[in-house]
Write a structure and sequence with these properties.
CATH superfamily: B-lactam Antibiotic, Isopenicillin N Synthase, Chain
Protein name: Non-haem dioxygenase N-terminal domain-containing protein
Number of strands: 15
CATH class: Mainly Beta
Structural class: alpha+beta
Number of helices: 14
CATH topology: Jelly Rolls
InterPro entries: IPNS-like_sf
Largest sheet: 10 strands, mixed
Distance between the termini: 43 Å
Shape: globular
Order of helices and strands: EEHHEHHEEHHHHHEHEEEEEEEHEEHHH
Helix content: 25-40%
Number of domains: 1
Length: 500
Amino acid sequence: MEEKASGAASSSAAMPRAQGLGTPKPGNVEDPVVLEFADLRNMADLSHAIQQAYGPDGLGILVIRHVPGFVEQRRRLLPLAARFAALPDGVKQRYEDPQSHYSVGWSHGRESLASGSPDLHKGSFYANPLVEDQLRPAPGDQLQPWLHPVLLDPAQQQQQQQQQPGSQLHTASGSQRRPAAGVVPPSWGADEAEQARLRARYPGYLRPNVWPQQELPEVEGAFKGLGRLVVAVGCLLAEHCDRYVAARLDIKQGALADVLRRSLNPKAVGACSRHRTYPAALRPVPQARLLHYFAPPASHEAPAAGAAGGPADDHQQAWCGWHLDNGSLTGLTSAMYLDAAGCEVGCPDPAAGLYARDRHGRVVRVAIPPDCLAFQVGEALQVSSGGLLSATPHYVRAARGAAAVGVSRNTFACFMQPDVEEPMTCPAGACTRAAGRTGAAGPRCGAGKVQQARCAGWYSRQGVPAEQVAGGDLATRWSDGITFGEFSEATFGKYYQEGR
């Protein structure tokens, strides 16, 4: 990936390591920008790496290595995706939640592919990794993920452990100590009637978690362990993205990061609720997804593994069709491939995996090392950054060939996103400055701030028909000032088949 100067004011900090993982490989494989976790935690100047990954010539994805505990948490959770998917259909159906648009618990065959047919290639288990119910307190909820132990230096950890009873104490897992049972703190705000209204208005986000406690009780702990770690690291990355955008637009530093903090921290919500029409209530809304891509049947033995195909052929062979993430940041693990016995194996097809289309129309396979945590930009961050950081179309290509038969793909994604009633607005001045400079948000369309959205026809000029990108054009679902909840419901309507 070509490196470009960031154009920001220089920092006294040494330039952190932001190189690719190794030398360029033949074919269409691209190594993403790599950040060291220590540089992220120490708030080194990462503006060069942010632009390299998320800017006009980036793939919209970067990876972070040496995150403490990540390798172990990934290895603990991903095999459970295959174990849950192997349960009898009748058991799995008990963990479906139609009222959430199948965005809580088990979902299989509920999403639509670009062709309009149900997506039967994968099954997903959704949950909020921070809290059990976004509108009700529960023991063990983690309300301030940026205080996760991996983010604190030894002195901070000691200070946290020495806090006196009654203060805002966090446990070793990073969760805030809750009041006694039956005591609802004022920060939760919403009464029963307001809770019912919010659940009815935003069913895709404000439904309580469900867990297979009887069949696989270990899922909850493993899911929360990895999910909370991902969110914690994502909070750090959001701070760096915030720095990058604030240095280039006339906005106050912290504006972007506060969007996520308001969706995670009840005190921040109460302090920043001037745009809201409801009491300051806690609604931590990150949503995590444990994915199981079912093993290809024997009919997938042809064409051979690694065989090249045109765009239409690739689309037919997709495990997950072209789409964009609609939140702010998406944390991703690399895939774990398992055989029919549940044993880990290598990827059976060198052409299988995650593909992205860069800003110049190239389709490349993105290599995520198993010891690295990846982050993609979503549409909400594209809007709030005025197009300086841009979401990238991506899809997952299925494995093919005889070696792929009986081999499943398992992975984990955590979607960090704004509060459901957070306004999605472009920064002032972004229309004439950011879009024209980066070109990352599509062409100018003469429609004021809406030009930050991808215009109709942009995908086709990049070789991807708009109808092949799930959710359609951003401009058809977003207008300046719409809330994230309204935007998400419009997106859910594109992804899911109602009444299935």
